[in-house]
Amino acid sequence: MSAQRHHLWLLPVAPLIGALAGLFYWFTLDQDGTLIGSVVRGVCIGTLILFYERELLLPAWRNRIRRWATPLFALATLVTYASMIVVANIIAGTVLQLGLDVTESARAAMVMSQSGFAYSIAASLVVILVFRIRDLVGPKVFGHLLLGLYHRPIQEERVFLFLDIVGSTSFAERNGDLATQIWLGRIFNALAAPVRRSGGSIDDYVGDMALITWTIRSGTRDAACLRCVFDFASVLEADAASWEADHGGVPRFRAALHCGPVVTAEIGLERHKITYFGDVVNTTARLEALSKTLDVPVVASADLIRRIDRLPASLRIRDLGTHTVRGRDGALSVVAVSSSREP
């Protein structure tokens, strides 16, 4: 699913949120102004900012500043928002003067009151804070914590992906720990977009390993969890020249996927976290170790493959037989997954 299609829901929602913000401003701070003027300005400002936050506007710039330290990120975002507020006010003024004819002149329509600009900046600061926290804990985890979905433990079925970066130890020996951390950070930054496009969530990073999870429905629908792995490989290959120039080669990884029932719960008092309890998580970790033994880059349990509604033609499945996995009663059927474009 393309990013544009994934965010189609935002087309009606962003203007609605902006209109509500404009209505709130008129009701609390600007009843001397016109209701329609506040609402139109709210629609224009809210739409631009929310489209920006959902990467429908200036995605390269947004992804770049997200890697900066929080103070620099906040300053750059505030400047970006302020610029968007100015542009949105020009658009709103044009609509009010030419389309709705509610002001005397185009110049007057484009003038924004000091209170209106201050309100927009204050609202922007709140949005910056919310989205920064969301970035730090992960979008899905943030939503779950905000809604309290896992305040009480629940049992559910989920898909898990353990993704391990190959060669990190030798890279550290050649380049040092600091350079290795920069290298890993860049790799995991590249992982974010494929995970988001697949509807998954990066649950944790442990050294050179990332743990990604999906609900069973979102992970198996149209093989989203498998697509994520090869989407990530494509993202790395698309930037191959840069990886070669900066780090001496394109990163490689191993991936293992499995699914099954887990207990999902919110834990922690001062630092909240969504965590998963059950054999499925441990089994996925053992599968990742097995992929190294078998020298297969991407492995999955047959249990997961059976749950996928439709395997895309771009992927090939090869049976690897049954294997005993430490800590699990009974053998586990395992398959190799590869791209049909691979030789």
UniProtKB/TrEMBL annotation:
GO terms for biological process: cyclic nucleotide biosynthetic process; intracellular signal transduction. Keywords: Membrane, Transmembrane, Transmembrane helix. It comes from the Bacteria. The lineage of its organism: Bacteria, Pseudomonadati, Pseudomonadota, Alphaproteobacteria, Hyphomicrobiales. It comes from Aureimonas jatrophae. InterPro entries: A/G_cyclase, Adenylyl/Guanylyl_Cyclase_3/4, Nucleotide_cyclase. This is Adenylate cyclase, class 3. The chain crosses the membrane at residues 7-27, 33-52, 72-96, 116-133. Residues 159-288 form the Guanylate cyclase domain. GO terms for molecular function: adenylate cyclase activity. The keyword Iron-sulfur does not apply.
